[in-house]
Predict the 3D structure of the following.
Amino acid sequence: MTKEEKRYAALNEIFTYYSHLQNVGNKPTFDQIKQKENHMQIGEFSRFVSDFKLPLRRETVMEIFRKTVDNKKELMSFHDFIVCFNNLCTKVNDEKVEKVKKNISKIKNELREIQALHDPKEKPKSNEDDEKLDEFKRLYKENEEANLGIIS
């Protein structure tokens, strides 16, 4: 089994589990039962997101669900689930990238402030300033590497 086939099988298990969580109602017809087995509702999808602790606001999850599901009954097929799952992962990754970019910007600003303290014509005023400068350079480099790891 290829990596992609394993991923597909795992997502199918997750979809099957969550699509069976809600009841169809009293005395459902065979058609209702069959439809229920092949579809997930928004409540079940929200529970999936919550159970897997995806760091997204409820409104964002609802928006992704509604943009993906193309019917008035708001029933998600397995194909829709895969599309939603990919959209969720993209959204989570985008938010992480933004956080890293903000951290890099903050470190760059702090680094500029420290460098401004040091006039290249003069000797550093203290070893503590040099240590701070070295620490900020190290943090900046780590954040740059982390940023590259998230994007690729």
